[in-house]
Amino acid sequence: MTDEKKRQIEERLSELPLAQYAWIRPEELEFSEQVRYICETECSRYGTSWACPPAVGTVEECRRKCLSFEEGFLFTTFSEVADIADLEETLACRTEHEEITRQVCESFRERGLAVTALSTESCAICETCAYPEGPCRHPDRMFPCVESYGILVTDLAEKHEIEFMYGGNVVTWFSLVLFRET
Ligand code: SF4
To answer: Is the confidence at residue 95, as pLDDT, over 90?
Structure first.
């Protein structure tokens, strides 16, 4: 992507409440079977959504998909909740982050780029996911969870000096947008 196009995108993104961001290269993403194992053994969403494993494909398939893009954009937003231990309240805040992720993707698409995005937690657009009986009802709005691809996003954030431990009741949400020229 040209520096001028990047500048235009940054100008557009300055209108959104992003906490921090970094431009990354897909080659620096690390894909771990161990992260996938944690999904499988510790997450109740495993096998219940198109946004989670095994529906997203094997870690190797996820890696190949990510590497088919030329560049990436990692960003965070944050929300303050009354009690971070209240999972229901905490997860409810992520709706705003998902909407911001859609707007970030749109900023890239408006400049003629092909885009895919991974976001935080499992998809919650539908009350009950269509998986596995039928296809995803909103494939253009649904973002697989970044960990579902075997990516440990906190490692990537540390590498790019993106903060994610604000303490107190502040929740940090991540999204990773990958893009290429069409
Ligand atoms: S949009 Fe609906 S069908 Fe698709 S992954 Fe999300 S919850 Fe499932």
So the answer is: no
